[in-house]
Design brief:
Blueprint: H1 6-25, H2 32-37, H3 40-54, H4 58-84, H5 95-111, H6 115-140, H7 145-159, H8 168-181, H9 185-205, H10 213-216, H11 230-235, H12 245-270
Length: 271
């Protein structure tokens, strides 16, 4: 039986992610490219959960995630602003924020010395999330309407909002569950199937998306194809393997920005 390290799983996720983003940003690309890409997010979540578990310095891990999250959120905003000019196309991809928020909650859970402290932490965190939500909304109010959607997510990266993040609060919760179930592969597989089923149910109840739905359930109708990650749970051998973490941190925003710009010029040339 073939077994895989974290490094090998990350390379597979990276290839699928790249294929997915070709389908997302290049005009008239076949939709099946996006189907392939549904594997990327859950596989990156799985690898990140193990990475956060094994890291010797969790605060440094969180700091790196936050720094790249803000960097990418800022880059997304400026590209959307200068290249779209009100055309209604947004650049919201920033899985750094989603993983960062999930890791923050895991860190609070693990650092609490007892249940009383744990409850106190999470009440404070819930209060912070409410404050962060209103800060994001208030700061974007004076801007032009076509910029508000993009700005919500830009502010979400800076203030760490579980609402204004890629995948929304559901995928933050999904990451947390992946973290705590990562060693129980069968249970994690069943949970992934149940979560995919929930996405199908929500998609049928919230289409076409409008208002709050855009933020609470920001996923495609074929997101259930994330179940393709299940075989990789059982192929993982628990080793790190060989890879450069910095490469993945840099490649993620860079390839998205390049494909976004390419798609913009291809679209405008066609017009």
């Amino acid at each position: 039986m073939v077994v895989m390290s974290t490094g090998q799983l990350k390379w597979i996720a990276l290839v699928c992610m790249f294929i997915d983003h070709i389908g997302e940003f290049i005009p008239q690309a076949p939709v099946w490219l996006r189907y392939i890409g549904r594997l990327a997010l859950p596989l990156f979540f799985y690898c990140s959960a193990w990475g956060f578990y094994y890291t010797h310095d969790k605060k440094k891990y969180l700091l790196h995630l936050y720094a790249f999250s803000v960097l990418m959120g800022t880059g997304n905003f400026f590209l959307s602003y200068f290249m779209n000019r009100g055309m209604g196309v947004y650049l919201l991809n920033n899985i750094f924020t989603t993983i960062f928020l999930g890791c923050c909650i895991v860190y609070l859970w693990e650092s609490a010395i007892n249940w009383r402290v744990r409850i106190r932490y999470f009440l404070l965190y819930a209060l912070y999330q409410i404050v962060a939500f209103f800060i994001c909304v208030i700061l974007t109010e004076p801007w032009r309407p076509w910029l508000m959607y993009e700005l919500h997510y830009t502010c979400g990266t800076i203030f760490g909002s579980c609402i204004f993040t890629e995948g929304g609060i559901l995928f933050v919760l999904y990451f947390i569950c992946v973290y705590f179930l990562k060693e129980k592969k069968l249970l994690l597989s069943l949970f992934t199937c149940a979560f995919a089923g929930l996405l199908v149910f929500l998609d049928t109840r919230s289409w076409p998306p409008w208002g709050p739905v855009l933020y609470l359930f920001p996923f495609s109708g074929y997101q259930w194809l994330m179940v393709t990650v299940i075989p990789f749970y059982f192929l993982y051998n628990g080793t790190r393997g060989t890879y450069r973490k910095t490469f993945f941190y840099v490649f993620y925003p860079l390839h998205i920005w390049i494909l976004f710009v390419m798609g913009y010029f291809i679209q405008n040339k066609a017009l």
